[in-house]
Amino acid sequence: MTAREEILARIRAANGPAREPTEIDAAYAAIPRDYRRAHHDSEQRDDIVALFAERAADYRATVEPVPEADLPAAIARAVTGKARLIVPDGVPEAWLAELPSATTIVRDEPPLSARELDAIDGVVTGCAVAIAETGTIILDHGPAQGRRALTLVPDFHLVVVRADHVAPDIADALARLDPSRPHTLISGPSATSDIELIRVEGVHGPRNLHILVSG
Amino acid sequence: MTTPAGATPAPNGSMPTYLGMPSFPSAARTAVADSQLRRNLTHATTAIRAKRANVVRELDDWEELRQAGKAIKEHTLANLDTYLLRLEESVTSAGGHVHWARDAAEANAIAIDLIKRKNADKAVKSKSMTTQEAGLNEALAQNGIQAIETDLAELIVQLGDDLPSHILVPAIHKNRAEIGDLFRRTISEAPGDLADDPPSLTATARAHLRGEFLDAKVGISGANFAVADTGSLVVVESEGNGRMCLTLPDTLISFVGIEKIIPSWRDLEVFLALLPRSSTAERMNPYTTIWSGVANADGPREFHLILLDNGRTATLADETGRQALRCIRCSACLNVCPVYERAGGHAYGSPYPGPIGAILSPQLRGMTSPADASLPFASSLCGACYEVCPVAINIPEALVHLRARAVQSQPHYPERIFFSLAASILSSPGRMAFAQRLGSLAGSAVARRKGRIRRLPPPLSAWTDTRDAPAPPPESFRAWWSRTRGGAR
Q1: Which residues of chain A are within 8 Å of residue B68 when distances are taken between CB atoms?
Q2: Choosing a second label site near B219 at 20 to 30 A (CA), which of B58, B131, B360, B483?
Q3: Pair (A6, A72) in one structural domain
């Protein structure tokens, strides 16, 4: 007997014979879900976006509300002092219009090695979805977000969150995603509580997370 | 009860890390005498308890989330074969490889073979309880493969040649000064004047591990959840070491216990609300990575999922004990447990310490060793663990159930003899009267001042070492009644 057959046989010995798939799916659908799908009123758009900004800042990310038209200037200010920035495909050219002349834009073409990424000072991206309740940004690594390593290895991550990205709560945010894609959920800069359960920001992931909330 | 656990081989060949550990009472006695350890634990658990209570209070539907989490896990366990097959299919169609392992040795052998085929002599590891349980690091070392622990606390444990003592914070037993000493001794990147504050210590770990991440060929992880319908694996973490291990190497191997499965993508809305608030007391943990098989030009080009049984199906067969398989490894039960707070994690002799460990370890390993048979007794049954458990595992109920099993598995247990004697006495009025007279005589012989019995000879001293007992009265009620008819005579 293979390990697979044996494990399945042990499970059936413990549980009784397998039920019909339709019966299992009906039992699954009947699971009581009396919790709230959102803890905040999704109709109150301004409140939801403000809540996102407040909760993201709780993690000691830098959060700035910015009118859409002021994005290029705000981005330029935020990346001041960064010599080399990597910018994934799909980031609007307009965002980069006012970058300081001392800043070089690097493209992931051909793809950079991890060592090369480590020599980059920061990354500028958009996002797929954000969650107001938890102050979380979700990347699905589609357009304007780049492959996962781009937002991981450089030490500074600037992310632009548009108001329409912000979902009130986890349930709504997950429902907007395509599960076949890889995802990264980001709630503040990397952190650890491994020494005396005291939170310290800045471990292996980007030590600085700068969020521009636009629109 | 000081027989080493290693004297009796575990039936599943599992969890070899802690062989030779004494049973809980003697290990706890040593731990309780360590005042530094008690200070470290009290400091850490007190802080996290208050924080958890705050973030849980924020959600007025916490109980409904908890009941949904419980129901989803119960449903999954009741149909585990079907969901495992669905997971296998979805991971495979997303380009991943699925392996099945009956026990730790089989899982380790699969991983070793995969790593050797990549001609790698080391692998970066993100924090994984399942590989800890399987003793993977030791198995890799025997095959010339270096496992590099990258979670800060796991690194502290590994550098100190120590054992983890907490599910979430494995180095909780060490304070900053002890960690500073360790880093100055073992990490070449540590600056000569490295201070003991947590930010400096954390920066040292970052510098130490950076090169390992960038050059890694093989990554090893566990998973918090495996979603059957989408083939998604979910790793919840804080430091970014998980992201590094899951993203940068070409080959990724994930060890996942068969109970980590959930049916559907939408179930994550429940568990991503329950887990971070219960474990690190945050609304959300800093990083969560979700992936399905392999992605085009993003992350590992080869993904292997190892599904591990290692005693889980045996646990599933126990109707009361199986609820331990709902556990999502948040460690809230450790942080509220008065026994854990005093005895610490090492006394439990298992990668799974605390209340959940006391019901999980003896079931996964079987109760043939004195150490495992002692674990269900490592509790005062106060119930705080049940109250905070995000999937409502009734740990006290399972403890009591496993105590019965522990007694039944050891036929010459003194309590068994005592209780059969008691049954015989209590079922006969004559024997009862005789025993009461005997008790009054013996009681007056051993009682000290104020009618208290302070010390009994062995083996009864096991009872009086920690308690006083009232001396039996000189005359029983029944004897007094038949003599006086309630004072009428």
Answers
A1: 31-35
A2: B360
A3: no
**What residues of A are in contact with residue B61 (Cβ under 8 Å)?**
34-36, 39
3-class SS of residue B301 = coil
- CB-CB under 8 Å, B81 with A182: no
Instruction: Indicate if A107 and A176 belong to the same structural domain.
Output: yes
Which residues in chain A have Cβ-Cβ distances shorter than 8 Å to B134?
A: none
| From A36, A147, A194, residue closest to B152, measured CB to CB | A194
Using one digit for the tens of pLDDT, what is the confidence trace for A25-62? 999 999 999 999 988 887 888 899 999 999 999 999 99
Question: A141 and A111: one domain?
Answer: yes
Structure confidence at residue B16 as a pLDDT band (50, 70, 90): very low
My answer on whether A14 and A47 are in the same domain is no
Q: What is the CATH number of domain B5-45+313-408?
A: 1.10.1060
Taking CA–CA distances from B179, the nearest residue in chain A reads A195
Taking the C-alpha atoms of residue B237 and residue B200, their distance in angstroms, rounded to an integer, is: 21
Average pLDDT, chain B: 91
What residues does each domain of chain B span? Answer: 5-45+313-408, 79-310, 426-484
- A3 & A66 share domain: no
Full residue range of the structural domain in which residue A116 is found: 39-214
Domain total in chain A: 2
What pLDDT does residue B6 have? 33
> Same structural domain for residues A49 and A22?
no
Q: Which positions ≥6 away from B177 have C-beta within 8 Å?
A: B196
Residue entry with tokens 């707070």:
B341
Sequential DSSP letters for A146-187: --GGGGTSSSEEEEEEEGGGEESSHHHHHHTS-TTS-EEEE-
Tell me how far CA of residue B440 lies from CA of A33, B3, B8, B30, B449, in angstroms: 60, 37, 43, 37, 16
Please provide the CATH number assigned to the domain covering B79-310.
Answer: 3.40.50.10420
How many whole angstroms separate alpha carbon B145 and alpha carbon B122? 5
Q: Are B187 and B204 in contact (CB under 8 A)?
A: yes
**Does residue A87 share a domain with residue A126?**
yes
Instruction: Test B283 with A133 for CB contact under 8 angstroms.
Output: yes
Closest residue in A to B61 (Cα–Cα): A35
**A119-123, A170-174, A196-200, B441-445: which range is least confident on average?**
B441-445
Chain segment B293-344, per-residue pLDDT in tens? 999 899 999 999 999 999 999 999 999 999 999 999 999 999 999 999 999 9
Torsion of CA B252, B257, B263, B268, to 10 degrees: -70
* B19: closest CA of chain A, how far (Å): 26
Q: Which amino acid is at B381?
A: L
Between CA B220 and CA B252 the distance in angstroms is: 6
Phi-psi region of B281 (alpha: psi -120 to 50; beta: other; left: phi over 0): left
Contacts of residue A185 in chain B, CB cutoff 8 Å?
272, 284, 287-290
Report the amino acid identity of residue B312: R
Q: How far apart are CA B447 and CA A88, in angstroms?
A: 83
**Residue (of B302, B285, B284) closest to B293 by Cα position:** B302
Contact A135 B247 (CB under 8 A): no
